Amino acid sequence: MERGMTADQVLVALWRRKALVGAIAAAVFAVGAAVVMTRPSMYEASSVVRVEPQRPGEEMVQRTVSELIEQRLLTVRQELMARPVLQKAIEEMNLYPEIVSEKGMEHAVAQMRKDLTIRVEGENAFELTYANRDPNVASQVANRLPALFAEETLKLRQAQARRATELFKGEMDALAQDVSKWERSIAEFKIRHGGELPEQIEMNMRGLERISHLMQTKSEELRVAEARRSDLARARNAADSEAGRLEAAENGLTRALVAARTSWTEDHPEVKRLNSELETMAGKRKDAEGRMVAERNERTRVGTLIENIQAEIQGLQKDAEMYQKRLDNTPKWAHELAVMNRDYEIARTKYQSVVSRKVEAEIAEELEAKSSKSLFNVISPAGVPVTPARPDRLAGMLIALLVALGLGVLTGVVLEMRDDSIRDGHELRERLTLPVLAVVPNMQGKTEKRVLMPSSGTRNGISSPTTLN
């Protein structure tokens, strides 16, 4: 039967069972002390790494790695705990050889995660703590892991920058082909419609004006030539009649001279007169024929000149029609050429932009490579620990002692609560409804004698005891 106990009763009960409580406490303490003392010593080494801000650089060139190096602190624990970094450290430093040989790399990585602690310090630093049984190994791992993390991070950033450069290069090649295609199309269009292009409209207008002026000039030359031909035609008629008259007169004089020679001698005055008149008439005839030939040649020349002028005028008319046709077709080709030029300018602008971005990506890639050594700065390298970080043997012994005492006390209290023995009058009065007449104390080892005498009076039929010493 269980019952409640006061503090005094607990202390009395523990004192009564002090041997049992002490034995239990000693046994539990011995077990706890053995556990504490047999646990292997774990040494912890810590290093503090500061992430240097990426300044300057963004003011000079647009970076292709959008994530700032400072932002990696938000995920530094996950990245350091990732398998690539831990596996590389295990393989490089030959950590957990027993686990690797017996259970495999996965269990070794899991064990290293348990032994590794990452804590972010402020906005741009983190502390890495590694625990191992060997203090030298703990120090080496704590100093090597930040370097491995930096190498993996820099490889990733350089790979991102390199991918951006390759992406811009591929895009640039595609746009270069597009630009070349548009340039060929525009060149072929200009060749097909040469003279009818918008940039040639002023030249065509000036050509048309020049043709108009030449046509006016040639028209005036034609008018003058035709007037000259008319004059020559009139002169020809007059010249032809004069030459004919002179020839007829010359023939008459020749017949008269022949008739006179048949009648007279050469010395005859009539014959001499006819000879003189014939010579004069022949000279006039020759002069008239010379003028006629000259006029004929002039008429031929003037006719040829008129024909040439007319041909030139026809050519000028064709040229004028050609220039007018060019001017008429210019608006139609101007629209098509404007559309082609617009698409070409868009492609060329894209190409120039991509070329500029590619150059910036190459510069950013070079900056990533050059600034890689200064991004992570170990401001507090890990030293070789002298004392083990755990277990805390003093605290462990104290805890074992407290647990042993607690179990001993608990055992004594539980046994006392389950003990139904009555040990004093107070318990008797609490557990019985009848009044207590007498209490006989434990007389073992005592010389005092107590005699119980019945009392003279009774109460409720039960006599009260009287104690005599």
UniProtKB/TrEMBL annotation:
Q: Does the keyword Glycoprotein apply?
A: no
Residue span(s) of domain Polysaccharide chain length determinant N-terminal: 10-91
Q: Which residues cross the membrane?
A: 394-415
Q: How does it sit in the membrane?
A: Multi-pass membrane protein
Q: Which InterPro entries does the record match to this protein?
A: Bact_polysacc_biosynth/exp, LPS_length_determ_N
Classify the source by domain of life. Answer: Bacteria
Q: Which PANTHER family match?
A: FERRIC ENTEROBACTIN TRANSPORT PROTEIN FEPE, TYROSINE-PROTEIN KINASE
Protein's recorded name: Chain-length determining protein
